[in-house]
Design a protein that fits this description.
Layout lengths: L1 H24 L8 H27 L1
Helix pairs in contact: 1-2
Length: 61
């Protein structure tokens, strides 16, 4: 039960991060400054590493 609760909390965090990524991806090119580019790259890297984690987590549940 506790493992499942942890999984749900982490899933919610992941969804919030995805929303943030999508907000930045939908900006017009002229709105994207160098800082935002770095931010998007970092979020994308984080998202990709989490995607691997979630695929592994699903197998364990």
């Amino acid at each position: 039960m506790l493992k499942r609760l942890d999984w749900l909390i982490n899933l919610n965090i992941k969804i919030e991060r995805e929303k943030t990524i999508l907000r930045y991806i939908n900006l017009q090119p002229e709105q994207i400054t160098e800082n935002k580019k770095n931010y998007i790259n970092n979020l994308t890297r984080l998202y990709n590493s989490e995607k691997f984690f979630w695929m592994k987590a699903k197998k364990e549940l």
